[in-house]
């Protein structure tokens, strides 16, 4: 499970950019568009596994883990804490010297697993750079759908999927 601990404050697409593409000429919906941009960015991030805005997260493992904890977003800029529950159910925070971040792979490698460790938690920060234009376009397609048809089926989802597909981190490319 992924939990936002500090939300993004700068989006990869501005309301001005979205308004230009959507041909919106008034300012009365600026706040709505900013909210839709955040929602669309989050959807693109979850579909690709690629972070598009700097933010802080807490990832809680839902499965047994080995010596490698695979985080759900890439790229990972830093890890603030790694913790687990011991046999008594007490939360233990690992010393930073006992794990290594591989930010390029969004993995935390545990040097030595404690005798009993479960329910791993990793607090981390993402700080992406160089957001591909096609992912910005996918965000704008989603924003356009949500803005024009807030209760209808998303009409541009297939086009957005095609724009996102090459950037999915899980492809192993």
Structural commentary:
The chain has 173 residues and is an alpha+beta fold. It folds into two domains: 7-50 and 132-171, Hypothetical protein yqbg (Orthogonal Bundle), CATH 1.10.3230; 55-126, no CATH class. 29% of the residues lie in helices and 25% in strands. It is built from four helices and eight strands; from the N terminus they run βααβββββββαα. It has helices spanning 15-22, 30-48, 133-148, 157-164, and strands at 2-6, 55-60, 68-70, 76-85, 91-93, 99-102, 107-110, 118-126. The strands form two sheets. It has a five-stranded antiparallel beta sheet with strand order 1-2-8-4-5, with no helix packed on it. It has a three-stranded antiparallel beta sheet with strand order 3-7-6, with no helix packed on it. Helix 1 (15-22) packs across helix 2 (30-48). The longest helix has 19 residues, at 30-48. The mean pLDDT is 90.
